[in-house]
Amino acid sequence: MSSATSPTKPRLELVLVGGGHAHVEVLRQAAMKRPAHVRLTVIARDLETPYSGMLPGLLAGHYTPEDAHIDLRPLCQAAGARLYHAEAVGLDLTGQRVLCDRRPPVAFERLSLDIGSRPEMADVPGAAQHALPVKPVDGFRHGWADIEARLHAATGRLQILMVGGGAGGVELCLALQHRLTTAGLGDRASFALVTKGATVLPTHPPAVRRIFARVLAERGVSVTTGRGVTAVHADGVMLDDGTHVASDATLWVVDAGAPAWLRDTGLALDARGFIKVNQYLQSTSHADVFGAGDVIAFGPRPLAKSGVFAVREGPVLAHNLLGSPERTLQAYVPQRRFLTLVSTGNQHAVGARGALWVRGDWVWRWKDRIDRRWMRMYQALRPGAMAMGGPSPMAPAANAPMEAMRCAGCGAKIDGDILRRALHDVAIPSREGVLLGVSDAEDASAIVVPTGQALVQSVDFFRALIDDPWLFGRIVALHCLSDLFATGAAAHSALMTAVLPHAPPRLQENDLRALLQGVIEELKRAGATLIGGHTGEGMELSLGLTVNGTAPAERLLRKGALKAGDALILTKALGTGALFAADMRGEARAAWISAAIDSMLRSNGPPAEIARAAGVAACTDITGFGLAGHLLEMLRASTLDAELSLRALPALPGAAGLVSRGIESTMAPANRTAGTRFVASGDAGLLYDPQTSGGLLIGIAADKADALLAALRADAPDAAIIGRALPRTGTTPRIALVD
Hints:
31% helix, alpha/beta, 739 residues
């Protein structure tokens, strides 16, 4: 039965590419007041955004990485934004899609780019091979760690050459020199700086330039001005006057360049490849595209590539992006004069505004307070701290203008045209033995079971635990297929049941297409295909698969085949339950969730094949009941006890600390209640943590365990021998815990 509906205002698909200084302000304002008509998605190469103002202090050792970075995951959680960990590599402006390096394209209706810039290296021979660019910051930090390792091992003095004499180059040079001095390595390195400018800090007042020229001289930094670098070699650089400057490590902090892929997008760009925008930070060629930060060429007047401007662009960009389609755009008016604060490596800084300048330790403390105050605006936001809250980004916003009532029962099915278009856009692989499948449009599917093979089936279904339908589809497929792999079966086919949040048809179509792409990608990798399914509407995204596989009946792996003395091998680290419980509260770091997702995306198929080839007969997979629950199932079926080494249990980053703080999945207490009667008392850690797409638990003869573990490591890098099976000593199974 259908219900009357009220007119609705369409929701807008807004995509932010990059997590720069302006975009984090857009997210902060979205967190303060959720725009009801907007669905917000962030695509970011780096899940932690470095703050440029604190980078020299980070490298000097005054700040921790947590101090100097904004974790995008809790910020996106607070804003109700979906966070996609990928790098944009192109735009399809006609189809309104962002092209990414490691995921399907992402649809948009309004787009903003705040992807920063990179030091230009392509025009200087050898620069890309032999110089270390300051951006991306994570790459520079890894590269500098290698240089420090060389310094520790060096018997002589190494020459470190900085190419670039702007504020970034000067601050970085002094910061790294201070770092080495405080680490006791100062006598193992000498620093030099080369710049094509007539002086260091050419955009700063003369007094500031003189101060830093003296500081560099006092610190023993050799400075060459008025000379550009024409080539970089492994042992130094060639200058434009033919001079060779020796270098054991060349650091590159020159003028920023725009990402090369922008030239193929069709956006209006300036001569250097930066996006031309008007006073509203709107592309001059495409009204639905905006930009901010270093990647733009501001039309009204040229702006330096400085975080000062990006920070001030944030509120204007938020107004123009988050406002209704009928909004009046706000113009960005960049300040003519602004305060600059440049540090000298130690906790000392120089401040200048116009012709006025000050210096001292107090100036550094002043700068430190300013930087920390700015960072707190973005680091302190949590989902519960929003002025106007909202549900998961995978569910419709509570204040979204939707129909007064939605149909239920069979009337809640997804529109047939949406389903047909989504299926049309996704290549579904063919599979031998499918009599009726998706392409036949029948109400049921049919498969042929080969003679002598057992049909192995399993079903699982759960709500979205991440805000990316494509990734969610992949994880669910792997989780469901794992039940087949744990029996030694080969995957054949699957039926899919999906529930999509209430939303306008085009948004549902985007989500369904992404969901299908994820599911089919993993089915195809496993040698299986999608043969049918059902879609419906609900309050939040949910997905399940009924999977089919085949295996010789006499060779099925079983829980009950465990033998006394067998070694127990776990193929994946534990902790997904605690991590995603923390993620829902905004308490999980992006790096932790990224590691958990990487683990969930490792298929149990190859480890299962390796185990079966090694003669394993006992196997199960670790899912909702946790390691303790699933091990107890094996012990009951095999009439055995077990001994586990808590120290040997592999744990995902951050998981153990969260459990020790009392942050755990809502299912963990029930697992604990069910298991404590059979498990020795003591700190059980992650023993009861429910796993999504968890690993296999394998039993194998002790003398074969090390060989199997070595064979597993390529596909299961966290695999570990965690204990052994013991003869049963009582009427019920017991798990003994040892350190």
